[in-house]
Amino acid sequence: MTGDFTQEFFWLVSTLGDCDRAIIILSVEGYSNKEIAGILDLTATNVSTRLNRVKQKLKDRYHNEQQ
């Protein structure tokens, strides 16, 4: 990642709610959905669903910022 993209990524992540931010950060750090679920007291299915939604939300926000 380039410096500008990295800064933009961290800014976008900072706009997320606490749980979504924790899920994306733990995922980027290499934790599995099962491990994240254990840490956050969620089900692995819930983590997977939320992670997919968060990724889409970040993509949408990134593309909106680029326009």
Question: Key terms for this structure?
Answer:
67 residues, mainly alpha, elongated
Shape: elongated
Q: Helix proportion of residues, in percent?
A: over 70%
Low-confidence stretches: none
Strand content: under 5%
Give the structural class: mainly alpha
- Radius of gyration, whole Å: 12 Å
Number of helices, counting only DSSP H or I runs of 4 residues or more: 4
pLDDT average, as an integer? Answer: 91
By DSSP, the count of extended strands is 0
C-alpha end-to-end distance: 20 Å
In sequence order, what are the helices and strands, one letter per element?
HHHH
Largest sheet: none
Molecular structure report:
The chain has 67 residues and is mostly helical. The chain is built from 4 helices and no strands. It has helices spanning 3-14, 18-28, 33-40, 44-66. The radius of gyration is 12 Å and the shape is elongated. The mean pLDDT is 91.
In short, what is this structure?
This protein is mainly α and 67 residues long. The protein has helices at 3-14, 18-28, 33-40, 44-66.
